[in-house]
Amino acid sequence: MIDLRDKLVLALGERDGIPAQAIAACAESAGGRVVYAATQCFV
Amino acid sequence: MTTECARPVSGGLRPVVRAARFAIAHTPALIAAGSKPRRELAARGAEEREALLRHLRSFEDAVRYPPHQVMLGALPPEALRGIPRPWHDRPVAGARAEGPAGRMVDEMEFYAWLARADAASLLYVTPEFARTLRTFGAPERIQTMAGPDLARAVARGAEPLRRTPDETVGAVVPAHEQDESLAAPMLLENLAAKVTGGLALRALLDAVEPDAPVDYLIGCGEEAVGDRYQRGGGNLAKAMGELAGVRTAGASDVKSFCAGPLHALLVAGSLVAAGVYRRVVVVAGGSLAKLGMKYRGHLAAGYPVLEDVIVGAAIDVVPDDGRSPTLRLDAAAAHRVGDGAAPHQMAQVLSAAPLRAAGLRFSDVDRYAVELHNPDITEPAGSGDVPYRNYQMIAALAAQAGEIERAAMDGFIEAHGMPGFSPTQGHIASAVAYLPHAIAGLTNGPLRRVQLVAKGSLFLGRMTNMADGVSLLLERNGAPPPGGRPA
């Protein structure tokens, strides 16, 4: 378990996995500060 | 259903998907022009280039590659389950470059068609190579340039054409020195799309009612054809029609990243159902930019570079012919602006909701054609088994709906899914790769329903964070619905 409070977060999502916005929302709710969020498509 | 001329037909007709064909151009010498190799080779230098050259496949090896035989319709996708991976180690004995679903062409024939497709006279080859290309069908008027002049042109921005990765035999010159949309690499990409789409269209028309006029072409590839004032202005479909010798058709393009072909099929079916047109062909050229997209993973795994083909497609949509699979417009779904983009939300919108609206259960669909990327290509690069992930989501929704037990998910995937087999030519892999098999299975085979599900990564263009998706249901012609009510 990582404590995200006061941490800077890079949220890298994947189209067929978890979108970046979902990762960012989770990280922010855990106290992290999202400084970059992007969803990628790897195919 | 032969007609003398293009004319509107009466409304309320049920559209069917009559045929689909692919043209697969094997272009190993162009891999260096793919987006990823171009950048990596520039950054990593000669050693990387040598490594790439050592891992190229011959045309014969590409023909014998089991997933390509599936694309050509010579093997069913399910046959891949019985072939140990990696599949390039298991060449298909007696494999041919043509099959019921299309044909493969080698690099020489592809270059000959590039010369034919060069309406703006931007392609030059050496005099010696011109003589060779004419034996492969290139036109007499092909423009020539001596080797030293070619080298100077390439130094000034022309895009080289190579016979082998180290032998430059031609070049595409820029159409305008200050227009990025008409830069030579863009033009070669667009010509490659035009050629592969045109070849697929020609293959379709040669095989299916060649005398029946095509009324409309809908393009749906990944290219952006245009100039500095209208990037991506489009209508490559019309250029493909010209190349394929189709004189009767109007044309336009539909775009939505990799979901473009299913949007185009939805529009094609609607035009036929409304009686606007009698024969609509959806066409798509292949993506040169995606050549070698995952080559570094292949080199690391000791594989050949498996992304060495550019794939075009053509799909024939006509009114009900009493035989071909029905395109159920009442069971189509397009992902809406307000829909969530998480995978479970996407599957809910594209698979569950339209089936429920049509009174169908998940198990009423015999095969789901999802993102059918070949895992041999994606897994060495760390991208996983994409179709399997998509099937997991559909099976999970079937379990959530109470149709199957959670423990039965793997069995559901085995029964209703298939191994990925498509080259990573995004819009081709997005469901339509299965179309020839779906049509065969829904006419002469045992299938009753196939759901096509495609996704598009709109967020890559940075204009939105949304993804996109479309699903279509194909049904055996005249199939009674579950419960026995006549269709």
The run of helices and strands of chain A is EHE
**Domains of chain A (count):** 1
CATH class of the largest domain in chain B: Alpha Beta
Radius of gyration computed on alpha carbons of chain A? 11 Å
Q: How helix-rich are the residues of chain A, as a percent range? A: 10-25%
Please estimate the helix content of chain B: 25-40%
Strand tally of chain B, please?
15
**Number of DSSP helical runs of chain A:** 1
Tell me the strand percentage band of chain B.
15-25%
The total beta strand count of chain A reads 2
What does this structure look like?
The complex is a heterodimer of chains A (43) and B (487). By secondary structure, chain A is of the alpha+beta class. Chain A has one domain (8-40). Helix content of chain A is 23%, strand content 35%. Chain A contains 1 helix and 2 strands, in the order βαβ. In chain A, strands 1-2 form a two-stranded parallel sheet. In chain A, strand 1, helix 1 (20-29) and strand 2 (33-40) form a beta-alpha-beta unit. The longest helix of chain A is centred in the middle third of the chain and has 10 residues, at 20-29. The model of chain A has no long low-confidence stretch (mean pLDDT 91). By secondary structure, chain B is of the alpha/beta class. Chain B folds into 3 domains: 15-117 and 178-319, Peroxisomal Thiolase, Chain A, domain 1, CATH 3.40.47; 123-173, no CATH class; 326-475, Peroxisomal Thiolase, Chain A, domain 1 (3-Layer(aba) Sandwich), CATH 3.40.47. Chain B contains 17 helices and 15 strands. A 7-stranded mixed β-sheet of chain B has the order 2-3-1-11-10-8-9, sandwiched between helices. A 4-stranded mixed β-sheet of chain B has the order 5-4-7-6, with helices on both faces. Chain B is globular. The two termini of chain B are 22 Å apart. Mean pLDDT of chain B is 95; it is low at 1-11. Chain A binds chain B through residues 15-22, 38-43, and chain B through 341-343, 371, 373, 378, 381-383, 386, 389-390, 424, 426, 429, 455, 457, 459-460, 465, 467.
